[in-house]
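Supplementary material to the annual report.
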Amino acid sequence: MESPVLKIDSFCAFFSENQVLQNVNMEVRHNKVTALMGPSGCGKTTLLRCVNRMHELVPDATVSGSMHLHDDDLYKMNPIMVRKKIGMVFQRPNPFPTMSIYDNVIAGYKLNGIRISRTERDRIVEESLRGSALWDEVKDRLHKKGTFLSGGQQQRLCIARALAMKPDILLMDEPTSALDPKATAHIEKLITELKDSVTILLVTHNIAQAGRVSDYTAFLYLGDLVEFGTTDKLFTVPDDKRTEEYLSGKFG
Amino acid sequence: MDATVRFRLFKDYLFKLMVVLFACIMLVPLLLILFYIVKNGIAVINWEFLTSLPKPMGELGGGIANAIVGTTMLIIVASVIAVPVGIAAGIYLSENRVGRLPGAVRLCMEILQGVPSIVIGIIAYIWIVISMGTFSALSGGAALAIMMLPVIVRATEETLKLIPENLREASLALGVPYSRTVLKVIMPAGITGILTGILLGVARIAGETAPLLFTAFGSPFMNLNIFKPVDSLPLLVFNYATSPYPEWHAMAWGASFVLVVFVLGINFFAKVIAKKWKVRF
Ligand SMILES: Nc1ncnc2c1ncn2[C@@H]1O[C@H](COP(=O)(O)OP(=O)(O)O)[C@@H](O)[C@H]1O
Ligand SMILES: [Mg+2]
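Predicted assembly:
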């Protein structure tokens, strides 16, 4: 089996004294969707934000353990470099309100002052918008503001913005929880299409969603990684009693 | 309908009437001021009045070009000093909501806002006029900058505080360094609020007289040198209105008219900007 894209070892996270992740061990495989599921408050967002080092932006937030992106120790790299390699899509769509659709997609280059030729830029924008299945809807109004799109379109714009940076991993934090069912279905379909070319770590508190779109699933409960395995196995013959109870809707 | 209910309805009606009445009374002072200024000022306004210098006492004609240019210079000097400092301080305060230094800066701004303008004039006199040995546009502009500062700091802080946190995160998650995130994402999202704050600051200082009495001092000559005394519209109004000559009184009304039109124009412009460039999140 080829080596994982992301390897998380004995990882713990704290908000000052409050430990919210205990000894998490898991890995994320190349061009697969790995789902992180668990009830609200169990630490899913925290774990995700540790991967791109956003966790440390909270005052007094600390971590222990290690995370490796391929062979690089994420916690020995500069956080800015980490975030350029690891894309993130947030719970609420957050396009830049002052920028056009085009500029939103290319924002990772523009804001970082990375110079690229015009044709290259056009190509990245089109490719990313096609990648997030938004191209056909916006190709005639690329220079309109991104905030005039619908919620689902805004979220796909944010996915395009992350894809434009050609990330090694795309982190998604409950990307559909602020969207209506139709937009949710659209994004789920997009996720399954994206995994041909992108490695995805997806947080969801929706069991069915994890079942539908993921190849691997991790079940987090009260800061513990209870179980991690292929989605097929975890959903049919879970090892842990708590996983079984969670899947049958006993809590969460 | 029995009598008590009708009486209550009547009281209710009376109450509404009173509220409207007092609201209308509020409009009276402004309308009176505008009426007087327009009535007395508009007669002297003409091209010569706006573009020529004052004539010596006894000669007819003359204008207030020196004061218009002087006020413009004072506003530019004050803005050049206050805008960068004010925006920087506002960014600092919105990024650091709690702590000792932010608390101290906030307190200073509040106190500064309450310091009488004449006192600020004295400070500028002691620091700049005395040490440079001359009244100057620079010292007047510095005094006005101190008056403008709290307005800009407050506007910047309040505007940036309202920018959703998830915008900052969107930028940081793309690997954009903090400084660029603030300058290229947060600031542009708040630009209308900041611009409005600057304009309101300008409107506030445009009519200040006291801090200029012993800094800019006033001058009947056309002067473009910031190290020399300059006239300003409110100073000119003050000097002419307190003189015994009716011709000068008329010119004071004319200068008041120009000043009021300018200040109202700025306020109007600020409203237009706030509406037109409103950023949708
Ligand atoms: N900024 C924060 N400061 C302090 N505690 C936090 C912060 N964010 C989250 N927490 C705590 O960390 C725990 C895990 O939260 P989170 O990772 O957001 O859970 P989830 O995403 O699974 O709902 C919760 O108990 C929450 O109270
Ligand atoms: Mg969460």
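Chain B touches chain A at residues 164, 166-167, 169-177, 180-181, 184-185, 188-189, 191, 279-281 (CB under 8 Å).
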